[in-house]
Amino acid sequence: MLNLEGIDKIITTPPENEQLDSPSQLLTDMMDLEMNITELCDRMFIVDQYVQDVKNKKLNGDETIGWKISDALLSIPNIDPNKFEEILSGRLQDLLMLQYLSKLSKTHVKFADSANSILYRTLPE
Q: I want to staple 27 with a disulfide (CB 3.0 to 4.6 A). Which of 20, 32, 63, 88 is the partner?
């Protein structure tokens, strides 16, 4: 099966600047999470609007769509809100620690590169 997630990311990520042929920017994990949550909220709003329109008799309901909405809602795990917050907080702390370690590693590499450059210049020929 063909995985199109990478192509989807290239298509849906915002461009780096305003030019027509500007390449997509690489999203940080937080930007990607924000974009996915925003997309999920938009889709939930569309479903909510559809359900409200069917309830208010503005639209004729489709039984197949109703069952799909029901299946989607039933697939959501029922987790205690405190437990969910604890899990999310733990994952967020893990993500922040990874960002910190990444920046620390980059700083270490830059420092080592600078130190090597200085040492190389001070060596006698």
A: 32
